[in-house]
Amino acid sequence: MAGVEDQKSMQSGAAEIYLNGRFLPLEEATIPVMDRGFLFGDGVYEVIPCYGGRLFRLEHHLQRLDNSLHAIRMQNPLTRPEWQALLDRLTAQLPGSDQSIYLQITRGSSGKRDHAIPPQISPTVFVMTQPAIYPDATTLATGIKAVTHQDNRWLRCDIKAITLLANVLLRSEAMDRGASEAILIRDGQATEGATSNLFIVQAGELITPPKSDHLLPGITRDLVLELAQQHGLPYREQAISEAMLHSADEIWVTSSTKEVMAVVMLDHQPVGNGKPGPIYARMAGFYGEYKALLQAGQPLS
After folding, report:
1. What angle do CA 36, 84, 123 make, to 5 degrees?
2. Which of 108, 96, 120, 119 minimizes the C-alpha distance to 21?
3. Chain segment 105-158, per-residue pLDDT in tens
4. 112, 145, 160, 211: which is the annotated catalytic residue?
5. What domains, with CATH codes, occur in the chain?
6. Does 8 participate in catalysis according to the annotation?
7. DSSP 8-state class, residue 55
C-alpha cells in the first residue's frame, strides 16, 4: 500500500495522514475545490477510538461505514484487510496510546458542480489519528447539563453523514444556554443528543430509543446494551416520550468521545438528586472494565 516515499516519511518520524492511497504530512494534503464533499457535504465519516493502541470495535465501525455508504449510493473503496493495514500504520505513530481516528469518504470530484450523482467518479478517502481527548475524571464524577430542543435535522439521521451543520447549531445553542448537550425531541419523543445517543433509567430499568432513521446506530450505545445484558441489568429499547425524559431517575448520553456520561441537569432542573445515579455508576464501572481489558490486550467477551 505504501511506496518508497511514504516509507521514508514514516521513518523520519513525521506525523502522517492518509489521503487517496498516500501517506503524507497533514500540511501537504490537498483536495480539489470541486470535491463534492466540499460543495455538497456529499460523504460520510466514522470516529474510531483506539485504547492503548488497540482499535475499539473496528468491525462494528466498518460495518456502520458500509451501511452509510450504501445509503448514499456508494461502495466502500477499501477492503477490510486494507482498512486494517491502513489504520494499523496510522496508530503505530502513537504506539500504545489512546487515540481518536477520524476517517471520511466523499464522492470525489467530477470537475463540475452538479447535484446529479456522476456515473463514474473516484471517491476521496481521508484518514487521520490524533491523541484522544476523553471526559476528565471531574466531569465523569459530576455529570453534565443538557437542554431539550426540537429535532430540526433531516429524516436520515441513521446515516453518519458529514453534513453536520444542524448538529453544530444545536450544540452551539445548548452551549449558549449553559449546557453541554442538546437532547432532541421529534413528534413528542426524545431521539438522541446533538452529538450522542440517549439513555434514561426509570424504576431501575435502562431504556433507550430503538434504532430508526431518526437516530444514529451508535457503537457505544450497542456496547452499553451488551454490557447491561452481560451483567443482568434490566433494559429495553422503547420510545422515550418527552414526559418520560423529564421524569427519568437518570439520564445518560453515549458516544465514541463522550463514552458514557451522566446528565444531572435538564432544562435547568435537576435529574433525580442532581448527581450521577447508582445505575450509571454501575455501567461506568462495566465500561471502564471493558476499556481496561482492551488497553491491556485481554480477550473481550
Report:
1. 15
2. 108
3. 999 999 999 999 999 899 999 999 999 988 888 999 999 999 999 999 999 999
4. 160
5. 4-131 (3.30.470.10), 137-295 (3.20.10.10)
6. no
7. E
